[in-house]
Amino acid sequence: MFPQAGLTDRRKFLFAAASVAGVAGSSAFAQAAEQKAPPGAFHFDVPADPTKEQGRAVAADGGYGSRSQFETEVRWRYPTPNDLTSWSMTPLDKMLGNLTPSGLHFERHHGGIPTIDPAKHSLIIHGMVDTPKKFSINDLKRLPSVTRKHFIECSGNGLTEWNKPTMKTVQGTHGLLSTSEWTGVQFATLAREIGLKEGSAWVLAEGADAAVMTRSVPMEKMLKDALIAYGQNGEALRPEQGYPLRLLLPGYEGNTHIKWLRRLEISDKPFMTREETSKYTDLLGDGKARQFSLDMDAKSVITFPSGDMKLPGAGFYNIQGFAWSGRGRIQSVDVSVDGGKTWYPARLDSVPEPICTVRFSFPWVWDGKPAVLQSRCTDETGYVQPTLKQLIAIRGSNGPFGSIYHLNAIQSWAVNEAGDVANVHA
User: Fold this and answer.
1) Which of 64, 147, 222, 409 is the right S-S partner for 226, CB 3.0 to 4.6 Å?
2) Can you tell me the distance from the alpha carbon of 367 to that of 369, in angstroms, rounded to the nearest whole number?
3) What angle do CA 282, 284, 287 make, to 5 degrees?
4) Rounded CA gap, 279 and 413, in Å?
5) Would you list the domain boundaries of the chain?
6) Do the beta carbons of residue 343 and residue 300 sit within 8 Å?
7) Which fold has domain 76-287?
8) What is the layout of strands, in order, in the sheet containing 202-207?
């Protein structure tokens, strides 16, 4: 599985490494590098010494840190009729580690981004409760908090890919996925404060945006692990992510994680809002629809090599990607380089956590011939990520009677002899 060229003898490798380390630490090596090397000898150019110039001044008040001007990763905004309803996708192929920077977390908006003064904002909880209450932001921050790592995925992630390969890059096919560390108060803590009446079974979550986003959530889920979040990645939520409060429902489709949260109403039945009747339901092949299909199924994707990339030539490549499941931990990931004919176990490069992405990798020596790269994952419930054909057989294709949500099929990337990588259905 590994390339054979180079130092294969362990003693030769260690001797060479020690020799290079010794020479690199000497001034003679630096001087020799600046001289013109004789024909055929190894040579490299020594860059200008940055220590000979003062760095830029530090802000008097310390300021808010910024990334290097040489780091240019940005989200990509899917074309929409206006800038108040939009999707902005995370560049998954550029991510380092397992957390998404807050500034690159995907966004989905239905009515623009409201400006909310936290001093004037509150969360009201009422309905089938013993004591209706209004909580200010300070009230919530005084309560015991928890911090957890979870992904959020839009149920429309990949909706363009049901019938034919459409988006060129992994940012386009899978970019409505991000992972953050969230901080807030458990709903269960608030439930003890207000008291729930017998028969309480559903909670209506309502946002303070112009769209007044509302979703019905089963009480069982709310009491299990719902979080009223005010922190993300060590700081306050950003306005685009629901500042000053958002609902976090680990493993549920992104549309239920209501941003700019202002109200929770307790009831004995679902509220049948627009977002769970005419939208965010799964049409099946026979014309019927699945409603409240809230859990995000196990899914994985190779981020390198992926669509619109080019491999410079045959040789070793470290295939990398992400896997995740809304029902718990990822148990294993397999990789195929021949379109699913044979599968090999991949390495999990981060510790699997509940309802959190995990990084995986697989060492691959490309022989320069056409190849089709795929990954599939299995979560701790035993669920195995399906092929697109398997999924369509159950759900129907995207059309008059077919689904647009919850596409978790195996993704295929085709590599041609020139090294060009493309999105394909295999």
Assistant:
1) 222
2) 6
3) 110
4) 31
5) 76-287, 299-424
6) no
7) Sulfite Oxidase; Chain A, domain 2 (3.90.420)
8) 133-136, 122-127, 261-267, 202-207, 214-218
| Token pair for 364 | 């691959």
Q: What is the pLDDT of residues 372-426, one digit of tens each?
A: 999 999 999 999 999 999 998 887 765 544 568 999 999 999 999 999 999 999 9
Segment 335-353 shows an average pLDDT of: 97
Centroid of chain to Cα 64 = 25
Residue at token pair 């001007």 = 69
**SS3 (DSSP) at 252:** strand
DSSP state of 45: P
DSSP letter, residue 229 = E
Distances from the Cα of 38 to the Cα of 20, 31, 33, 43, 70, angstroms? 19, 14, 11, 9, 35
Q: Which amino acid is at 322?
A: F
Query: What integer pLDDT is reported at residue 413 of this predicted model?
Result: 98
CA angle at 178 for the pair 371 and 279, rounded to the nearest 5°:
95
At 29, list the tokens: 């090596």
17 DSSP 8-state letter: H
User: What are the φ and ψ backbone dihedral angles of 363, each rounded to 5 degrees?
Assistant: -75, 130
Task: List, in order, residues 6 or more apart from 228 with CB less than 8 Å away.
Answer: 123, 140, 184, 185, 186, 187, 190, 245, 246, 247, 248, 261
Please give the share of the chain, as a percent, with pLDDT higher than 70.
88
Q: In the block, which residue shows the tokens 């995000």?
A: 296
Asked if 132 and 124 touch (Cβ cutoff 8 Å), the reply is: yes
Task: Give the pLDDT band (50/70/90) at residue 7.
Answer: very low
Please list, in sequence order, all residues whose beta carbon lies within 8 angstroms of the beta carbon of residue 119, skipping any fewer than 6 positions away.
137
pTM for the structure as a whole:
0.88
**104 token code pair:** 């690159």
The residues near 113 (Cβ < 8 Å, ≥ 6 apart) are 209, 239, 240
User: What CATH number should be reported for the domain whose range is 299-424?
Assistant: 2.60.40.650
| 302 three-state secondary structure | strand
What are residue 267's DSSP bridge partners? 202
CB contact at 8 A, 161 and 407: yes
CA atoms of 111 and 212, how far apart (whole Å): 8
